[in-house]
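Deliverable D2.4 — example input (structure tokens):
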């Protein structure tokens, strides 16, 4: 405030002219900028009394402030937060860390209630969820392990952990460490997924990210020619049409893409006992020659 300097000291705030003297209006303007703040998650709820002392005279009580406690979200402590990478449409393995238990690398995972720091947190349930990045059901959370006192139910992209009357915090933590991420698509969405935990029906907290890495799947062909297929010469030279003679009835598939073209690559040339040669568009056919379905 113009003309007024503030000097805080503990629970008091002293107002003095910043230089020379100040007017009453300047002091009143300065008083109107003062705010009360409490920074505790577990505050003393006793009524606060606000007092003002003018010119060193005894303080006069001006007004009271009551504090209202709030139910702060239970915090997840010591959870590993590094980004994991899953391989598309793969099972859990040592080389695919995102499909191993999501919390197995959090040996000291625990929970803390900001409203009661230092005390144990009674847990009535935990919901683990994946942010809805993928299309359909390609992503899921699974747990095939059995944890004493804990029941795990899957619904869409969430897992709900419910405990028996005797379930402890340690039981819930043990169950969390059995949860795996799984992707079943050959054409996955590669955006990062967020893994979140909601404890005791409170707001979910994002814990870590999981990405999915694409792999180049080998295309497959069914109903194609076999090694021993024979063509009978009915003309000179023998006229083969790639589409009707070589690719007729062939059913290609590629998990990574929609197949919109198909061709043949010559990987070996055998002239046989009768001699002769292979040509394409009047040019000799050599190993590596590629023919499209329109040739």
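Example output (designed residues):
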């Amino acid at each position: 405030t113009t003309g007024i300097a503030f000097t805080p000291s503990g629970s008091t705030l002293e107002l003095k002219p910043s230089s020379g003297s100040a007017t009453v209006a300047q002091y009143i303007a300065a008083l109107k900028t003062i705010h009360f703040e409490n920074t505790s998650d577990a505050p003393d709820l006793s009524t606060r009394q606000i007092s003002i002392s003018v010119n060193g005279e005894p303080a006069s009580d001006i007004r009271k402030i009551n504090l209202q406690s709030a139910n702060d979200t239970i915090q997840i402590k010591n959870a590993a937060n590094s980004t994991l990478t899953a391989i598309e449409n793969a099972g859990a393995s040592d080389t695919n860390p995102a499909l191993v238990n999501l919390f197995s690398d959090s040996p000291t995972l625990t929970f803390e209630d900001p409203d009661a720091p230092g005390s144990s947190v009674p847990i009535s349930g935990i919901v683990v969820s994946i942010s809805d990045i993928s299309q359909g059901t390609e992503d899921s959370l699974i747990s095939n392990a059995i944890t004493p006192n804990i029941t795990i139910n899957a619904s869409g992209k969430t897992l709900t952990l419910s405990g028996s009357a005797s379930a402890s915090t340690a039981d819930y933590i043990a169950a969390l460490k059995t949860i795996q991420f799984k992707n079943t698509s050959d054409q996955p969405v590669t955006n990062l997924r967020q893994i979140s935990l909601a404890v005791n029906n409170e707001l979910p907290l994002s814990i870590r990210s999981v990405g999915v890495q694409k792999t180049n799947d080998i295309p497959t062909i069914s109903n194609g020619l076999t090694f021993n297929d024979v063509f009978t010469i009915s003309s000179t030279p023998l006229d083969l049409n790639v589409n009707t003679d070589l690719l007729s009835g062939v059913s290609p598939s590629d998990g990574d893409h929609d197949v919109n073209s198909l061709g043949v690559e010559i990987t070996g040339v055998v002239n046989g006992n009768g001699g002769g040669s292979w040509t394409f568009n009047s040019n000799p056919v050599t190993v590596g020659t590629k023919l499209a379905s329109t040739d």
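Helices lie at 24-31, 169-176, 242-246.
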